[in-house]
Amino acid sequence: MSSKDSDSQTKAQADTDPNETLGYDFFPARAGHLETDPEKEKHWYGKFWSFIRTEQNKDFINALKCQHRVIRCFEENLMVRLLLGALKSKGCEVKLSRHVSCESCESFTNGGYDSINKQIVICSNNTKKNNTVCNVLSHELIHAFDDCRAKMDLSNIEHLACTEIRAANLMHCTKMTAISEGFANLWGKSQQQECVRWKARNSILAVRNVSKEEAEDAVDRVFDRCYPDLEPVGRIPRNPYLDGRRLYVEASLYGYTEPPVVNTQS
After folding, report:
1. C or N: which end of the chain has fewer Cβ atoms within 10 Å?
2. 158 is annotated as an active-site residue
């Protein structure tokens, strides 16, 4: 996506900039500073209710519910299944217990892709609806697919911009979504592209210590190359849920086979 020298320079800046966290600060368990206090909610109901109400156990219960929702997405959501099949066809089969983790995150974060550990993070304290979990999972699976086929370096802002453009184009700025958010009318291709640019820019700003202008410049540099890349979906969905079955069938044209029954064992 960029020259070797550019890659090295960008990575060096990320490694030396003490304010650059690459988004890991949104996931306390991964940043190594998850703070809990088993005693802080203790009250007259006694030790049992104190135990139940501790933050650790809230997190545990949220994680269990999240894992159940993720399993449902693996089994029932056709967009998720399409992406799982595409990853498997590229030699990157997704195993639930190894590659998807339900964790507590900062209040405004729904999920993320950890390119170092090759894991998708679903924020169990923030994503509590099945559709939301499936949507987040699909978004992050697109990042995983890009990493699988192109070996992304997310410390390189151009790599980050490209995968965010693709995720926005395939998942968030569908025609119906773009219209509902005021970016497009029924014939407005240019407005749909503006939606993609806006989503990609904001995603970069959320995880990188850069200015709005730097984020927009990164999106502009790779947009013409990354926006037309619709693999593995093949088209911009009008609605990922309504078009799911058609997209799933069309995926066979790319050689993406149906993923196997969910295996929760590592």
Report:
1. C
2. no
Q: Is the pLDDT of residue 195 over 80?
A: yes
Region of residue 77 (left: phi > 0; alpha: psi -120 to 50; beta: else): beta
Angle of helix 157-167 versus helix 212-226 axis, rounded to 10: 60
Determine, yes or no, domain membership for 132.
yes
Q: Supply the pLDDT for residue 13.
A: 46
For residue 86, tell me if it sits in a domain: yes
Which tokens is 236 given?
A: 């911009």
Residue 43 Ramachandran class (φ > 0 left, ψ -120 to 50 alpha, else beta) = beta
The candidate with the shortest Cα–Cα distance to 221, out of 250, 200, 199, 192, is 200
Q: Residue type for 9, please?
A: Q
- Asked whether residue 9 is domain-assigned, the answer is yes
In a domain, 77, yes or no: yes
Query: How many structural domains is the chain composed of?
Result: 1
Q: Of 140, 158, 164, 216, which one is the catalytic site residue?
A: 140
Residues counted in the chain: 266
Residue 241: domain span:
4-254
Q: Name residues whose C-beta falls within 8 Å of residue 195's C-beta, 6 or more positions apart in sequence.
A: 168, 172, 173, 177, 178, 181, 183, 184
Adjacent-strand bridge partners of 108: none
The least confident of 143-147, 207-211, 258-262 is 258-262
**Whether the predicted model's global pTM rises above the 0.90 cut:** no
How many DSSP H helices and E strands does the chain contain?
A: 12, 3
**What distance in Å separates the CA atoms of residue 240 and residue 7, rounded to the nearest whole number?**
34
259 pLDDT band, cuts 50/70/90, is very low
pLDDT at 69: 96
